[in-house]
Amino acid sequence: MVGLFDSEGREPDRVRLHAMGLLSRQLSNLAKLLPGQPLPSWRACLSPRQIELAELVADGHTNEEIASILNLGVETVKKYVSRVFAATRVRNRAELVKLVCMEAVAGPPPSLPGS
Known about the structure:
- Helices cover 57% and strands 0% of the residues.
- It starts with 13 loop residues before the first helix and ends in a 9-residue tail after the last helix.
- Helix 2 crosses helix 5 (93-106).
- By secondary structure, the protein is mostly helical.
C-alpha cells in the first residue's frame, strides 16, 4: 500500500487504487459480521414508504393489490419492489418475506450501546 502513495512524483496506478477501494469496502463489510457486532435491520436501508411496501409484499399482496392500497401504478410498484430487493440484497419475494418474518419473530437487532 505504501507503494501506491510514494513521494517520487509518480502518478498512482488507477487500477491499484480502485482495487484498494474495493478491498477496503469488502473488509469493512466483513468486519461488521464479526461476532459481537450487531446485525443491521433490513429497515435501516429503506425509506418509510419502502418499509410499508416490503411489509405488504411479506403479507402476500400482489403488485396489483399493493398499487391499489398505496394509490400507485402497477409499474411504479414493480420498480419500487425491485429497489427494495436491491437495497435489502434479496433476489425475490420469497427471500424478502423470509427477511421480514425473521425479524418479526426474533425482534429487531440490538442497538449499539449509547445509541
